[in-house]
Specification:
single chain, alpha/beta, Rossmann fold, Alpha-Beta Plaits, 2 domains, seven-stranded mixed beta sheet, 14 helices, 17 strands, 40% helix
């Protein structure tokens, strides 16, 4: 389910959009300025998965800074003090007494200043590919050329920025990111925002940070030298520098799991629930989810064995990421699909929705409908044996999957009842005669 977006006024009257998801100790994730848009980010499977990894056992707090996303764009003040007031407005509204903070790239300076000024509030500080003084990274010929483009051609500027961030070989991804960038902000905003960012210098505050700090960076990022990160970690008391492999400054691209693991270990979070699920004795109620790729035989004839296997791998990655995000457990691979189980019916339905959305996003990236998936869910008390689940409830879930059409999620009446009041869009599709079941079974479609 998409988070509920709310608004709060900063001290100068600017409306700041924010949301929270999950429960537990708070993690305040500062905007990846200017690439910030609460609503659109949630539609990017990789980004949403990244946020869900960080917020698996915490209250995850996210907001759009002034001038970006769903926040007001008519401000002319983007100074450090203005950005700190955005943070303060969200923190006070919730209200949060003590929390961890994540600052990436330019937001690192804001996070540093807030942590130094509010040592009683910030328990942990994570700095991702960040800096304390913008001049340390903004004097390269490439950065100066990009800044000049902003005043000449907005489309060329966003396309070029996307390729610098994602790499020149990532053509399709760069086009998608450039389009996203253009919706995050405007050239009018950036003409005020960029000079303010380039003047940022909080180096004097580094020795004043009292909380444990994690400085995270990828070694091969071409526009940001490792030396800047080492200098940052050296000047912060109680800081730890972790260098990961990769070349993308965007945390949810590349080896996201390695980044999330480093953050969660630093924060002291346990492994995600899905890794701790053990076999349950018979009689324990669980929700069973089955996926199945449609049209796999024609796809093989069209793409060949190797090409079709690439699509199968894409399906497996999508389903397994969704299972991990929602606390599900993979029971087994079924050839063209995957069987999973959940202790929560609501989480199972949310997982199914994420799977279909990710499949749709995959088709958009490939600019072709190569992958289509149908999903079926049922809940009951299966028999657990040797890591597998057996029984009537499992058989019914499989038959429900078989009945679904490509791109469809079908659930049983039991699952519908267990998820009542959870704001899912569920439609009665009538009774169906399912193979192996004497009585007709009423099914419901989950609209995603």
């Amino acid at each position: 389910m998409e988070p509920q977006i709310r608004y709060v006024k900063a001290s100068d009257g600017v409306n700041i959009a924010y949301y929270t998801v999950g429960e537990g100790l708070p993690l305040v994730y500062l905007p990846f300025t200017p690439f910030s848009h609460l609503q659109l980010e949630w539609q990017i499977p990789e980004c949403r998965h990244w946020y869900e990894l960080l917020g698996a056992q915490r209250m995850f707090v996210r907001f759009d800074g002034r001038g970006t996303g769903l926040s007001d764009r008519d401000s002319e003040d983007y100074s450090l003090e203005a950005q700190l007031s955005d943070v303060e407005a969200v923190v006070e509204r919730l209200p949060l007494e003590r929390f961890a903070m994540f600052g990436a790239v330019d937001a690192g300076a804001t996070a540093i200043a807030y942590a130094a000024r509010n040592p009683e509030r910030v328990s942990h500080l994570v700095l991702w590919c960040a800096w304390a003084r913008r001049a340390d990274v903004s004097r390269t010929p490439r950065t100066l050329a990009l800044r000049a483009l902003l005043d000449q051609d907005w489309d060329v500027y966003t396309e070029t920025t996307a390729r610098v961030l994602l790499g020149w070989k990532a053509e399709a991804e760069a086009r998608t990111f450039a389009a996203f960038y253009r919706q995050c902000t405007s050239p009018e905003v950036l003409r005020y925002l960029v000079p303010a960012l380039y003047d940022m210098d909080v180096k004097a505050l580094l020795p004043e940070i009292r909380c444990p700090t994690l400085v995270l960076h990828r070694r091969e990022i071409p526009t940001l030298e490792v030396g800047v990160m080492k200098d940052l970690a050296t000047q912060i008391p109680n800081a730890n520098l972790v260098l990961l492999e990769g070349e993308s400054p965007i945390p949810f691209m590349g080896d996201t799991s390695a980044v999330a693991r480093a953050v969660r270990e630093f924060l002291g979070d346990e492994e995600m629930p899905s890794s701790r699920i053990e076999d349950r004795a018979g009689g324990a109620a669980v929700t069973i989810l089955f996926t199945d790729m449609t049209g796999s035989t024609p796809l093989t004839q069209r793409l060949g064995d190797e090409g079709a296997q690439d699509v199968v791998r894409a399906h497996n990655v999508i389903v397994r990421q969704a299972l991990r995000s929602h606390g599900g457990r993979e029971i087994k691979h079924t050839g063209d699909g995957i069987m999973g189980s959940f202790a929560s019916a609501s989480r199972a339905v949310e997982c199914a929705i994420d799977i279909q959305r990710a499949v749709a996003a995959y088709g958009e990236r490939e600019q072709e409908t190569l992958l289509q998936v149908k999903v079926g869910l049922n809940a009951g008390e299966p028999v657990a044996e040797e890591g597998d689940l057996y029984g009537t409830s499992v058989q019914l879930a499989a038959r429900i999957r078989d009945t679904a059409a490509a791109g469809q999620i079908l659930i049983s009446d039991v699952v519908r009842g267990l998820t009542a009041g959870k704001r899912f869009s569920i439609v009665d599709v009538g009774e169906h005669t399912l193979k192996g079941f004497e009585e007709p079974v009423r099914l419901y479609e989950v609209r995603w």
